[in-house]
Amino acid sequence: MKCQRLFLILAIFLLSCSKDVKTFNKKKPIVEKIQRFQKDQNIKTKIPKQNHLDLYPFEEETACFFNITKEFFRCKGNPLNPERVDTSNPDNVKVYLDCVGPSKHGLPLIHEKENVYPILIDVLNYIQRKTKKRVVITCGHRCPKHNSYADTSNSAKTSKHMIGAEVDFYVQGLENSAEKIVDLIFDYYKEEVQYRGLNDYLNFQKYQKQTDVTTPPWHNKEIFVKIYKSSEGRDFNNRHPFSYISIQVLYDKISKQKVNYSWERANRGYLIH
Ligand SMILES: [Zn+2]
After folding, report:
1. Distance 85 CA to ligand 1 centre (A)
2. Ligand 1 centroid to 141 CA: how many Å?
3. What is the Å distance from ligand 1's center to 73 Cα?
4. How far is the CA of 103 from the centre of ligand 1 (A)?
5. 174-178, 262-266, 268-272: least confidently modelled range
6. Distance CA 156, CA 148 (A)
7. Labelling 189: which of 3, 127, 160, 199 has CA 20 to 30 A away?
8. Other residues' Cβ atoms within 10 Å of the Cβ of residue 259
């Protein structure tokens, strides 16, 4: 009995469904006419462009170069370099040997840690980010022995390279555009003012006194920037044919003190392993 009832219910259900389908097919759709004016025109739309996902900073930077760290500033001395003989004074011929190399001595001690002044690292990374090109550091820290070996001039005897407060560099692919790189350094400070409100550091002035370069240098409260043309400032670390930029630190905004060379800091301010 139960099976018969179920069969009956199923048959009624199927019949009712087929009836609905038939009535649906019979209905004609109502077509509404679209009214247009004579002046009406189709709106021209731009073809949409596909957006590319922004890269994370680490993806972007490792694509063509590495982020600059203090490691890039290590002394470039090498005990295998040949001796250099200075015969400029025949009565006092001097022979210079290079240092033991960066694996045997450290970087200067700054704020009680091996380091260079952080502003140098910040500015060079900014230049890399903006140009998307590699910054080549030709000279970062020089220990006193490598300093004497690399540059025998009198002015080098108090070089801030020895205290981690100076860097020489050029930008690969922009070797002949040193002025544009200096403009980027100015831009770095404009952004710093915007984000951190460091107004004291914004204004750059031209240095009026005579120096060893033909392009008058620029300075603000924190740094001193020089362009060495391809015929200027050649030393053992800068034997390349390009012009290069030198940045010197004048003022340390962390300790709020001027940054000056001293024999003590140059010779006793780093660790020898
Ligand atoms: Zn050295």
Report:
1. 18
2. 8
3. 11
4. 9
5. 268-272
6. 8
7. 160
8. 21
Q: Please say whether the beta carbons of 235 and 150 come within 8 A.
A: yes
Residue 56 DSSP code: P
What backbone torsions phi and psi does residue 268 show, to the nearest 5 degrees?
-115, 0
pTM over 0.70: yes
The pLDDT of residue 93: 92
Q: Are strands 135-139 and 218-219 parallel, antiparallel or unpaired?
A: unpaired
Helix (H) or strand (E) holding 120: helix 118-131
Q: How many Å lie between the centroid of ligand 1 and the Cα of residue 149?
A: 10
Q: What is the pLDDT of residue 229?
A: 97
Q: How far is the CA of 231 from the centre of ligand 1 (A)?
A: 26
**Residue 117 CB: number of other CB atoms within 10 A?**
28
Let me know: does 128 contact 188? Beta carbons within 8 Å. no
Cα–Cα dist 246/132, whole Å? 20
pLDDT digits (tens, 9 = 90+) for 38-63: 888 888 888 888 777 777 666 665 55
Residues counted in the chain: 273
Distance 86 CA to ligand 1 centre (A): 20
Helices and strands in the chain, H and E counts: 6, 13
**Cα-to-centroid distance, 152 and ligand 1 (Å):** 15
Residue 231, both tokens: 């015929």
**How far away, in angstroms, is 216 Cα from ligand 1 center?**
30
Q: Return the closest-CA partner of residue 222 out of 193, 251, 260, 186.
A: 251
- Tokens coding 10: 């199923």
How far is the centre of ligand 1, averaged over its atoms, from the C-alpha of 159 (Å)? 14
